[in-house]
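note to self — DONT lose this again. spent like an hour looking for the file last time. sequence + predicted structure for the chain T wanted, 191 res
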Amino acid sequence: MAEEPTDRDLVERFVGGDETAFTMLVRRHERRVYNLAYRMLGREEDARDATQDAFISALRKLSSFRGDAAFTTWLHRVTLNTCYDILRKRKREPLLEMPASAEAALVPHDHAEATVVSIDVQRALLLVPEEFRAALVLHDVQDLPNEEVAAILGVPVGTVKSRIHRGRVALARALGERPGASRPSEKRTTP
């Protein structure tokens, strides 16, 4: 049974002319790249565009990948840069928002509570400032260690910890909760 090639092996094979190696890298990382883009941008179509753009950018820059960090760290950085570009572009475009009543009509009433909470959290996450959101998504959603988040963002570990904390506070505020306060669903009632 053949052993799976490492990301580094695939990068070397691609740089050496094996185009199928890049396809293998895309298949291996596309879900994680998409999830990061979706959490940063909040819209499926933007996340799909960002995923495609990130991989195109990675394809163009892969020959300059030095290997100082893990390939996934480098790819996360490429993805975040792509997301930042889309967010900057979005700020220049007129915002077409759907009225709350029309939006509510699109959500079927038989969805599970978890889906509703997930949608609320995603919307609230978009209200968190970008630099805090990036650290929060990489650490809390992508489950990356602080050191890897620091490498991706190009900041010290202490800054990552600070951004994660501030991101969590901003997320709690966006969800309408006081940081540190228990949620109404967590409060116990005595009969």
